[in-house]
Design goal:
five-stranded parallel β-sheet; alpha/beta; homodimer; 9 helices; 17% strand; 270 residues
């Protein structure tokens, strides 16, 4: 995209969707730390004419707990502005009368309180981290293989994410494992699923071409957004790796700043 | 294949390759129990003009320990007749000067005693069972993702196997997980890799079309053997599931007996 074309499209923006981990903050054992400038950048965005939403594939905590953590870091954010896979999954399960066997992190279990779980007829996996033991994965496998038509939901399809001590495997890896074991294709709930992004657009009441997504994940954030007709840019924080820049998705206008704060600065100037 | 064609090809047989778990015995916490008739059938095969070899993707113990277990069950079997992935992997590692990070069951580690393992430049995974913890899989992932060109060996590509208490996930599932995480394709050592079967044929000094493989796994035993030009038949024990019979590979002459003993009976009669 030529510079003028990029400038013109940024001028027509009406909303910005922000990924959270790796964009707003770096995860860590102590809950994480804000990426320099990001707290202020969220404030500036919210003070502008642009609508702002937060879109995460985080599935280790309820939105309430997760948002409280971000608020303690200083972010101006509330639960109704945050879109995450677990509440979206609950809506799908209820709509289709499905009773999940859950393989998720303990912290996110309360999101599923309102769903019937006895005698499961599907499996839902999230970023269960150390709960992805052999025994737990085998239990989920046995539920699936015992169903006449196995139904598997994956809360996102991420490969890995970055924490203080290095890269950690994400839910997508275990999704692939169960897909192979049971000859099924998982239904992904979360980024980059277009239905998931559409719910965020509906909430803002704007069109995809009026929206910009800022994320650190080439596939789930940038690719997912572009696939829906949004603009998608990748920051050089979080799980960003230099080799990402070789990807056609983000050449040209794919990077508008090394950090989220610089990307916001660029957008607000135009 | 018409009955006469099948009979003719069985008459030209010079060797039989037997899968072990699910064919000779059923695995279990107590080490397993022989499948009725199989001890006697091995004896009868060995007393015939046919050559006999054993070919397993077992990677939870050294061949020595594994064979001793089978001997205690009453099988006439010795280490030199058994082909398993770990010794084949050791040969490949040495040939290519590779230093493995091992994610394997403790029992099979001694097979790798002669291999340099410091500063790893590849990952080898086997059927690690409960050692497939999140932490251990993440450690293997970090080794792979840190290599300029990740090299992953998988000792087999099985999806699951049967033990007393039900189906258990096998190494192939974790192979798919790491393949997805690192954008690599694993090199499979073991069934159904044609190179692996060829070593068994070389040892017998016969051609593939003179050889019959008896197994319980549709893909690794029957499909793998047929892909190499051998005859492959599936028994109805072990991980066999009725839906396997719908598969084109095993319609027609795919089953010559519900148990290995009956298959051997049929072959020796012709």
């Amino acid at each position: 995209m030529a510079a003028t074309s990029w400038e013109n499209s940024v001028k027509s923006l009406k909303g910005v969707i922000l990924d959270m981990c790796g964009v707003l903050y770096d995860a860590g054992e102590d809950g994480g730390t804000p990426i320099p400038g990001s707290v202020e950048a969220v404030k500036r965005l919210k003070a502008s004419d642009l609508q702002v939403r937060f879109c995460t594939n985080e599935t280790q905590a309820t939105r309430e707990v997760f948002v409280a953590k971000l608020q303690r870091m200083g972010f101006d954010i509330c639960v109704s502005e945050v879109f995450s896979p677990a509440p979206a999954a609950v809506a799908v399960l209820k709509e289709r009368g499905l009773r999940p066997h859950l393989l998720v992190y303990d912290g996110v279990v309360p999101e599923f309180d309102s769903v019937e779980k006895a005698n499961p007829n599907c499996v839902v996996i999230g970023d269960a981290a150390e709960k992805f033991s052999y025994q737990n994965l085998n239990d989920a496998f046995r539920v699936l293989i015992g169903l006449e038509k196995p139904v598997l939901f994956s809360l996102g399809r991420g490969k890995y994410y970055k924490e203080d001590e290095g890269l950690n495997l994400d839910v997508g890896v275990y999704m692939k494992a169960l897909e192979y074991a049971c000859d099924v294709e998982a239904e992904v709930i979360g980024k980059p699923d277009p239905m998931f992004f559409q719910k965020v657009l509906d909430d803002m009441g704007i069109q995809s071409q009026q929206t910009l997504m800022i994320g650190d994940d080439l596939v789930n954030d940038v690719g997912g957004a572009q696939h829906c007709g949004m603009k998608g840019v990748q920051v050089r924080t979080g799980k960003y790796r230099p080799s990402d820049e070789k990807h056609p998705k983000i050449t040209g206008d794919g990077h508008v700043g090394a950090k989220m704060a610089e990307a916001v600065e660029t957008i607000l100037k135009l």
